[in-house]
Amino acid sequence: MEYERRVVRTSNVNEGDDRKNVKQIGLCIFLAGLSCFAQLYLFQPIMPELARQFHINPAESSFAVSFSTMGMALGLFSGIFFADRISRKKLISVALISSSALTILSSFAGYFWVLIAINTVKGILLAGSASVVVAYIAEEVHPAVLGTVTSMNIAGNAVGGMSGRIVTTLLTGWLDWEWAACTVGIFCLGCGLLFAWTAPESLHFRPVKINAGNKIKEMKRHLCAVPLLSMFILGAILLGCFVSVYNYLGFRLENHPFDLPHEVIASIYLMYILGSIGSMAGGILSDRHGVQKTLIFMLVLMLLALFFLLPGNILPVAAGLGVFTFAFFGAHAIASRVVAQYIPFERSTSISIYLLFYYLGSSILGTVTGIIMHHWGWTAFVLSLSILAFCGVSLLTVVGKSTRHAAR
Questions:
Q1: Residue 6: which residues within 8 A CB-CB, separation 6 or more?
Q2: CB of 22 within 8 A of CB of 313?
Q3: Is residue 5 situated within a structural domain?
Q4: First-last CA distance in the chain
Q5: Which of 209, 228, 255 is the last residue of a domain?
Q6: Where among 209, 229, 255 does a domain terminate?
Q7: 104 neighbors 186 (Cβ within 8 angstroms)
Q8: Residue 73 domain boundaries
Q9: Residue 281 reports pLDDT greater than 80
Q10: Do 369 and 381 meet the contact criterion of CB atoms below 8 Å apart?
Q11: 20 to 30 A Cα–Cα from 251, which one of 138, 147, 321, 391?
Q12: The whole model's pTM is what?
């Protein structure tokens, strides 16, 4: 399958100057990623508490997460047309500070619909950071240290996603969810202010006025490229499955036959450490064995791991969750790399469309699978995710065969 294309680096930063600033910009990028993803999935681990307090079912409680990621998708789509007009540092700073203020405000939401509205706007704002941080790194960092700073971005995303969930779960158990949201919001506000104060200016940014007609044609070209389209759909399946498992596993673990306390449930998010290992493993394996084979392997691992979530014993569930998390991050790392490399000079458009599908998959599937669980139980829920993973394997297989046939 013709997934591999040449990578082009565009940064024109002086290497000597950038080596001096790599710690500073690396820390700032880490804080941006931490703040963004600590806020985006803030309410995921406390969905059972939201369901109790607002008297709603599990599927309805997922709106607190789904509308955040829906807002992220809307923001990313808008960013395709507007993000290149505004200074990268200014956009990231405004996004982090304003979204943190909304996270603090959400702790005072007395009605669930108010919480959903705040989270939707927050998701749109967070897209301002997520959509341009990679471009900010590419423009302001010399290629010699690009890998180091990029790894700080990935680390910030992972640490933010993990620590935000753990802290929220623990504080909700000890105090209540309002205190948890307020605490995370204040911490993320500090991260945003520190980024605005210390991050290097966007010295190499040049505003670009986007021609909407040309951009839409460019998007159509990407959507018509079968290998790219398969990656977009795969991204939706991947995050849809991943978010669904972490959305609803807490409901299962706090009830019979597990009856686990919130401190133990919080520890499941330590599985994100395996996700970081999975990302690295995905890159290494795809270099050795090719993109298609490695992606199929990761999806099959996800499929098999799902069945370990069925027993009423914590050991197979923990093992299954670990393998599932490892495989998801491995598959996502490969898919996003393929998207970024396929058409080098239109990379921003490819990445934006991929993330659009990615977060739409999270929003839609994260709620639909909750409806399945609410009406038909945990086994039906796991079966629905297994079907999605199988569809991903089938998609890659069919696209691989058609691409090879067309190349003959």
A1: 341, 344
A2: no
A3: no
A4: 12
A5: 209
A6: 209
A7: yes
A8: 13-209
A9: yes
A10: yes
A11: 391
A12: 0.84
Query: Smallest Cα–Cα separation from 126: which of 104, 93, 153, 151?
Result: 93
What is the per-residue pLDDT for 135? 77
Q: What are phi and psi of 22, to 5 degrees?
A: -65, -35
CB 369 within 8 A of CB 384: yes
CB atoms within 10 A of CB 121: 18
pLDDT at 406: 40
Residues 6 or more apart from 47 whose CB is under 8 A from it?
Answer: 58, 61, 62, 64, 65, 247, 248, 250, 251
| Structure token digits, residue 10 | 């565009």
> For the segment 237-248, what is each residue's pLDDT rounded down to a tens digit?
999 999 999 999
At 87 the pLDDT is 82
Q: How far is CA 197 from the centre of its chain?
A: 26
Mean pLDDT in the chain?
86
Give dist(CA 177, CA 48) in Å, integer: 11
pLDDT digits (tens, 9 = 90+) for 175-225: 899 999 999 999 999 999 999 999 888 787 777 777 778 888 888 888 998
- 345 pLDDT band (50/70/90 cuts)? low
Q: DSSP secondary-structure letter at 200?
A: P
Closest CA to 68 of 28, 122, 131: 122
- d(CA 121, CA 74) in angstroms, rounded, equals 10
Q: How many residues does the chain have?
A: 408
SS3 for 357-385, per residue?
HHHHHHHHHHHHHHHHHHHHCHHHHHHHH
**Total domains present in the chain:** 2
269 shares its domain with 398: yes
Buried b (16+ CB within 10 A) or exposed e, 24-57: ebbbbbbbbbbbbbbbbbbbbbbbbbbbeebebe
Answer whether 301's CB lies under 8 Å from 326's CB: yes
Show the tokens assigned to 360.
């739409």
Give the pLDDT of residue 19: 55
- Which tokens is 248 given? 């609803």
Q: Quick check: 18 pLDDT over 60?
A: no
Contact status, residue 240 vs residue 364, Cβ threshold 8 Å: yes
CA distance 195 to 92: 9
Can you tell me the distance from the alpha carbon of 40 to that of 305, in angstroms, rounded to the nearest whole number?
A: 26
Amino acid (one-letter) located at 211? N
User: Do the domain assignments include residue 287?
Assistant: yes
Based on the fold, state whether residues 195 and 109 are members of the same structural domain.
yes
Helix (H), strand (E) counts: the chain: 17, 0
Q: If you search the block for the tokens 């710690």, which residue do you land on?
A: 23
Give the model's confidence band at 5: pLDDT under 50 very low, under 70 low, under 90 confident, else very high. Answer: very low
